[in-house]
Amino acid sequence: QVQLVESGGGSVQAGGSLRLSCAAAGHILSINAMAWYRQALGKQRELVATITPSGTTNYGESAKGRFTISRDNAKKSVFLQMNSLKPEDTGLYYCNARMKMSLIDGWSDFWGQGTQVTVSS
């Protein structure tokens, strides 16, 4: 069973930090790009950051300068280090990964269950 398992969410005060983790589990042949998205209550889901297998990153405007995405290919994991957190960072964070289960399969997108991040003033 292929799935993405997230952890690391929680409640912090403004200016604090959190590190989110997401690990892919199951029979997986390869993983392409991985990413983090978030969705605040009553708002649309937005891209936070992406990272390619070679380590090339891309950040949404709100994350630049404060968040860092990284990955460990051997552990099939992606991380999001969040510093200088603001109340507007509050939301449900989802990890995403494009994966292939076998040589006869194409690429498919998978999503984590979501982990809540709450930042208070």
Secondary structure elements and their pairing?
Blueprint: E1 3-7, E2 10-13, E3 18-25, E4 30-39, E5 46-51, E6 57-59, E7 67-72, E8 77-82, E9 91-100, E10 108-111, E11 115-120
Parallel strand pairs: 2-11
Antiparallel strand pairs: 1-3, 3-8, 4-5, 4-9, 5-6, 7-8, 9-10, 9-11
**Overall pLDDT score:** 96
> What percentage of the residues does DSSP assign to strands (E)?
over 45%
Strand count: 11
Q: What is the percent of helical residues?
A: under 10%
Shape: elongated
String of helices and strands: EEEEEEEEEEE
Oligomer: single chain
For the largest beta-sheet, the strand count, sense and barrel status come to: 7 strands, mixed
Total helices: the number is 0
SSE class: mainly beta
Name the poorly predicted regions.
Answer: none
Q: What is the terminal-to-terminal distance?
A: 40 Å
Gyration radius over CA: 14 Å
Task: Please characterize this protein's 3D structure.
The protein is mainly beta and 121 residues long. The chain has strands at 3-7, 10-13, 18-25, 30-39, 46-51, 57-59, 67-72, 77-82, 91-100, 108-111, 115-120. The strands form two sheets. Strands 2, 4, 5, 6, 9, 10 and 11 form a seven-stranded mixed β-sheet that branches. β7 and β8 form a beta hairpin. The N and C termini lie far apart (40 Å).
Give a quick precis of the structure:
The chain has strands at 3-7, 10-13, 18-25, 30-39, 46-51, 57-59, 67-72, 77-82, 91-100, 108-111, 115-120.
